[in-house]
Write a structure and sequence with these properties.
242 residues; alpha+beta; Purple Acid Phosphatase, chain A, domain 2; 6-stranded mixed β-sheet; 5 helices; globular; Capsule synthesis protein CapA domain-containing protein; Metallo-depent_PP-like; Capsule_synth_CapA; CW_Biosynth-Accessory
Length: 242
């Protein structure tokens, strides 16, 4: 669980430490506060989750060189390194992902494309972005997957009447070297004061399919409107077999 975001400091030091203690009591690994890195094992692989944001008391999204050094260190001692970043503008005006420095309400929110590429260059195997409150495009960079934003998932007091209510769930498979093999976008919807429900119209997947094609037309990803994600060479083989 990544705690590094622009609301982590809302209740001060006591709020941060009580959250950390609550997660530790139930055995949930987390990262974010004060440089904390999450570590866990899955299927005999050691996995590190390194968290970044633009907020105080977290590892900064703005210092790309320091981020690269941290990721490289974790890559030397873990089988898989996941980078979780909280950055980019917020809302419907920020559906598209651009390779440029973003601001929101005058506050700096980083260049998420440059950051994601840099940490993959240093050993990250998957980059998972959040913060825009809307789904964004996927990109395959050096055979590593980047999800620039998966939108909202379970929020309170937030307008979820449009794309802000799309709650995609991303399922991905890596190979033993951390390279992306295939994945699935499971489309869900968030409605006010109700549990998530699966979306038979696949609206989140359809949106991410379009945004990926528009924002990263050269990426080696094939995404169906039902949410299946394949590398281009695998997608062509899949189509031939059909």
């Amino acid at each position: 669980l990544n705690l590094a975001n622009n609301h982590m400091n809302d209740f001060g030091y006591d709020g941060i430490t009580s959250t950390m203690e609550a997660l530790e009591e139930v055995g949930i690994e987390y990262g974010g506060p004060y440089g904390q890195i999450g570590h866990f094992e899955f299927d005999s692989m050691s996995i590190a989750v390194v968290c970044f944001s633009t907020s105080p008391n977290t590892v900064s999204l703005f210092d790309i060189r320091a981020a690269q050094e941290l990721v490289a260190r974790e890559a030397r001692t873990n089988d898989v390194v996941i980078v979780s970043l909280h950055g980019g503008g917020e809302g419907l005006s920020y559906l598209h992902t651009r390779d440029t420095f973003e601001y929101y309400l005058g506050a700096p929110r980083g260049n998420v494309v440059a950051f994601a590429h840099a940490v993959i260059d240093s050993g990250a195997d998957f980059v998972w972005g959040h913060g825009p409150h809307v789904p964004r495009a996927l990109e395959l960079y050096k055979r590593r997957l980047i999800a620039y934003s998966l939108g909202n998932f379970y929020t309170w007091g937030f307008n979820v009447s449009d794309e802000r209510g799309y709650a995609p769930i991303l399922k991905i498979t890596f190979d033993s070297f951390g390279a992306f093999v295939h994945g699935q976008i499971v489309s869900a919807l968030q409605k006010p004061r109700q549990p998530l429900e699966l979306d038979s119209l696949h609206r989140a997947a359809t949106l991410m399919h379009r945004l990926t094609a528009e924002d990263f037309p050269e990426t080696s990803l094939f995404i169906t409107e039902q949410g299946a994600i394949r590398r281009i060479e695998r997608a062509l083989r899949y189509i031939e077999l059909q």
